[in-house]
Amino acid sequence: MDQIKERIGQAAASIVEDGMVIGLGTGSTAAYFIQALAKRVDVEGLTIVTVASSHTSEKLARELGLSFVSMDAIDMIDITFDGADEIDPQKQMIKGAGGALLKEKILAYASRELVIMVDSSKCVDTLGKAKVPVEVVQFGHHLTQAHLSSLATSCTMRTRGDGKPFITESQHFIYDLLVESPINSPALLDQQLRKIPGVVETGLFYNIAGRIFIGYNDGTVKLLS
Amino acid sequence: MDQIKERIGQAAASIVEDGMVIGLGTGSTAAYFIQALAKRVDVEGLTIVTVASSHTSEKLARELGLSFVSMDAIDMIDITFDGADEIDPQKQMIKGAGGALLKEKILAYASRELVIMVDSSKCVDTLGKAKVPVEVVQFGHHLTQAHLSSLATSCTMRTRGDGKPFITESQHFIYDLLVESPINSPALLDQQLRKIPGVVETGLFYNIAGRIFIGYNDGTVKLLS
């Protein structure tokens, strides 16, 4: 699987052009993309600038010598490259298993294009086998959970290895929702979830993805425009 | 004006019943309500419990000896008493001039009833003269502002007296939006604002208010059911 993800990251990095502002997603495939991008910068001397959706990706980018700026310094991202937990034929997605959904969506929304990098196991006919992460403010979170639960078959707070609540980089909690599969309209579900006070962001992404790189077990990577 | 607000607070406190869980709003009228409630508890020996939408209201409640619990300790609020910046005949409101809109909405949404206390100057035919506060995560906030601006005629970051950004109790920024007056559909505007990644909450409240106490310059307080 690592080899597949490495190839996806390399294929995706190949479309970066000189002078671009690049948004860095978060996750294992995004990490391979960052490595491949750093190699291209080294070898070809590309002048690019990166911003990141997490401290993890920022750290990796800095270690690899990529030019890195804070979000405050840019007005527009050319392409953000990111992974997904599930993606359907309409390019609707569930994201956020890594906990960076809020920053990932802010980056995506600020980008001319969001390029998605997935292995073929993430491609589904309809969304809903993966849990939908929902980022929630800490104040009154169990009341928010009660409202979330009315829209889900299960709704559990994400915890760290030590059992304590997982806290996002923006100091929020995450609840993972299993909803009645399949999710026929991610847009409607997203709207219902957003109406609940305390909900900051959902892992439902739609009407946003551009090109998709899909890696297969035979080692090939296909580009879906 | 203070005398009017005091009378509104007293009138509102009169509907509190023994045994209730009470949500405390934030603002000058809410402060008078808290004082009147504490007086009733003192004089009548009511057994009530309070939760608050801000540290300011929590501090006042504690100082006045009201029984206070954290939001984590309760499942449901009987009545939340709060003010509003503008309210129209359909009980649609703009709230958040005090910066507590997020917690106020979480309290309201967890309450059997939201009772609103306003002086008559806050009653308008249509919303939109007051600015609509929007609570926004700090990460990439100027990108969020750019998206907010596309829905507003002006969109300015709220600052403190010293010119630094106003930061909410949940560590977010607030942008104050002046939108094309009047706001024909607060629900639609709320939905459009919420779709923007980085938006945590808006000051548009609708389909949520129960009874309204309105204070007039002649010293009368009317109750709108």
Provide keyphrases for this structure.
homodimer, 225 residues, alpha/beta, 6-stranded mixed β-sheet, 4-stranded antiparallel β-sheet, 6 helices, globular
Would you give an account of this structure?
The structure is a homodimer of 225-residue chains. With 225 residues, chain A is of the alpha/beta class. Helices cover 29% and strands 26% of the residues of chain A. In chain A, the strands form 3 sheets. A 6-stranded mixed β-sheet of chain A has the order 2-1-3-6-12-13, with helices on both faces. In chain A, strands 8-9-7-10 form a 4-stranded antiparallel β-sheet. The A-B interface holds A 71-72, 75, 102-103, 105-110, 137-140, 142-144, 146-147, 169-171, 191, 194-198, 200-201 and B 71-72, 75, 102-103, 105-110, 137-140, 142-144, 146-147, 169-171, 191, 194-198, 200-201.
In short:
The first copy, chain A, contains six helices and 13 strands. By secondary structure, chain A is an alpha/beta fold.
Produce the secondary structure layout.
2 copies of one chain form a homodimer.
Chain A: H1 2-13, E1 21-24, H2 28-44, E2 49-52, H3 55-63, E3 77-82, E4 86-87, E5 93-94, H4 101-109, E6 111-119, E7 132-136, H5 141-149, E8 154-157, E9 173-178, H6 186-194, E10 199-202, E11 204-205, E12 209-215, E13 221-224
Parallel strand pairs in A: 1-2, 1-3, 3-6, 6-12
Antiparallel strand pairs in A: 4-5, 5-11, 7-9, 7-10, 8-9, 12-13
